[in-house]
Amino acid sequence: MTAGPEPLGDAARAALHRELSDLRAERADVAATLGDADEPGDRADRADELQRATEAERLDARIEEIEGRLREGSAAAPPSTGTVGVGSTVSVRFGDGTESTVHLGELADADDPSLVTVASPLGRALLGHAAGDSVAYATPLGRTTAVVLSVGAPGGGS
């Protein structure tokens, strides 16, 4: 990825907020089941309590991770129109001569057929490149190339 914090697109921000809300609700449910450590119980009760405490820790870690990503995304500048970053709209010419315009995003979205995630081979290859650059990346059929034709700002097209 590029150096520094990456901006978040509107769809990614909304998805993270939804996940955060769900995690907080789940964390509250788990917390409600955690009992008083001084209560008597058998080993099965203690094991169950330990499992719930471990689940609470996992949820806390994910909540902290999402909150950090949201803070980072808010502090980041939008991607430059000169280089490919999260949120950029990029026109590319593939090795077979076909051309396409794709949008780079952080999270997959089934409703956006032009979305390429930055975790995908093409997305990783495009990050940080500018118009005129050639990139190589792996596909299921082997390595291929693409040329960056243009880079546009988020939502602005190419």
From TrEMBL:
Keywords, alphabetical: Elongation factor, Protein biosynthesis, Transcription, Transcription regulation
InterPro entries for this protein: GreA/GreB_C_sf, Tscrpt_elong_fac_GreA/B_C, Tscrpt_elong_fac_GreA/B_fam, Tscrpt_elong_fac_GreA/B_N
Name this polypeptide is given: GreA/GreB family elongation factor
Residue stretches spanning the membrane: none
Highest classification ranks of the organism: Bacteria, Bacillati, Actinomycetota, Actinomycetes, Kitasatosporales
Chain ranges of the Transcription elongation factor GreA/GreB C-terminal domain: 81-151
Region (Disordered): 69-88
Pfam families associated with the record: GreA_GreB, GreA_GreB_N
Transcription elongation factor GreA/GreB N-terminal domain location: 12-71
Domain of life: Bacteria
Entry GO MF terms: translation elongation factor activity
